[in-house]
Amino acid sequence: MITVKQARDIILGSIAALPQELVCLEDAIGRYLSTDIISNIDIPPWDNSAMDGYAVHCADIDDTGKQLKIAYELPAGTTPKGPFGKDQAVRIMTGAPVPPGTDAVIMREHTSEQDTYIIIDKLPKPHQHIRLKGEDIKNGDLVLRKGIRIGPAQIGILASLRRILVPCHQRPAVAILATGDEIADLDEELSQGKISSSNSYTLISLVKELGGIPIYLGVARDNREDLVEKLSQAKKADLILTSGGVSMGDYDIVKEVMSQGGNAMDFWKVEMKPGKPLAFGKISDIPAIGLPGNPVSTMTSFYQFARPAILKLMGANNLLLPAVSAKLVSEIKSTGDRPEYLRGLIEKNGPELTVTPAGPQGSGILSSLSRANCFILVSKGTTIVHKGKLIDCEIFEGTW
Ligand code: AMP
Ligand code: MG
Q1: Which of 116, 138, 287, 370 is most buried, by the most CB atoms less than 10 A from its CB?
Q2: What CATH superfamily classification does 20-43+135-169 receive?
Q3: What is the pLDDT of residue 146?
């Protein structure tokens, strides 16, 4: 059986980032840059005051008590008017350009203000409270790298650079199909023997959370015709996700459909728990991940395989969940035959991160996953991890 890393590498090897499109700045949040962004301006554009106060020439001030004449006032958004003479000060506001000839700003609080002059209460240090031209970003700097996620700070930088259209990779369309004769969608009656299709809605929301566009194809019955018919509606998708129908049961026919009629299955089964029965291949030339049906297996396999695939389509550099190590609060036992992904709850306790399993770990128990914020990774061959040991964890986005 192949390992999680081998399986992920095979999936990622068959996927490339989608083409670029220009996106309005306000809509670029959560997208990934398709080119490096190089500044063509200095930020700040000129030396400017970091305080409300007085711009002075330090050499004029030999001691506290020195009087300086107020030459003029310089609000933010205006430019210095005229020359600056000896023993003069300019009343300056935060953000205004410092007048030529001045080399420090004294905070208003450190002066005594009279009608036409000020008295210096505290000696200034040369260059104090002056924000230098280009100290944040210099003309020609590579400010944002291709493949980074555009968050609020990046949006702010793009606005400073006046980029109203942002080059981003397109958002992937991700087809989602649940399968199972026992699975009822939300518009179907929950008759005897049926259960609700929770997977449809966890998958739709997981795709949305990453910035993908879900194309929901509903629930296919466990027969070839219905499966093929529903999958035929995935033609415009960049990735297909199915849930269920990939185990050993008589009606588990997703992998069969994935192997027939021009389709191709690259692998089936991955060495992990939960989530062993994972299938990957191409359906009508579209990469297709057959996720296992048990709700926790579906989500675990999504995080390990579908998430990196979607992020790669979106052009992201970082494809894996953020990893940390945390101190185990209670002992963990495992069979050791496969690497295990336990649902855990990481918390900050004083100076350290601690983690504890978030309840029962059966692959059908979604309620414990709803109380978790990470996977606890128990490696293959490990049968016990003692309380107090540091253990690797992967954090789910948006939960902590
Ligand atoms: P399967 O691999 O198709 O046998 O599915 C395994 C188990 O996962 C089934 O017995 C169901 O309990 C559960 N399951 C499958 N599909 C869904 C779904 N869409 N929503 C919730 N549970 C599901
Ligand atoms: Mg099934």
Answers
A1: 287
A2: Molybdopterin biosynthesis moea protein, domain 2 (3.90.105.10)
A3: 98
The Cα 12–Cα 9 span in angstroms is 5
For ligand 1, say whether the CB of 221 is within 6 Å of any of its atoms: no
Strands (E), 209-319: 213-220, 239-243, 264-268, 279-283, 286-291
Which pLDDT score, from 0 to 100, does residue 40 have?
98
Q: Whose CA is nearest to atom 17 of ligand 1?
A: 293
> CATH topology for 323-395?
Beta-clip (2.40.340)
Q: Cα of 179 to ligand 2 centre, how many Å?
A: 6
Nearest to 266 by CA among 11, 4, 5: 11
Give pLDDT < 50 ranges for the chain: none
| Ligand 1 site, residue 244, Cβ cutoff 6 A | yes
Range 339-361 burial, b when 16+ CB lie within 10 A, else e = bbbbbbbbeeeeeebbbbbbbeb
Tokens of 63: 């001691």
Residue nearest to atom 14 of ligand 1 (CA): 293
| DSSP H helices in the chain | 4-13, 152-160, 198-210, 224-231, 254-258, 295-301, 307-313, 366-370
Residues near ion ligand 2 (CB < 5 Å) are 180, 244-245
Is the pTM of the predicted complex or chain greater than 0.90? yes
| CATH number for the domain running over 48-131 | 2.170.190.11
Q: Phi and psi for 208 in degrees, rounded to 5?
A: -60, -40
Residue 224: per-residue pLDDT: 95
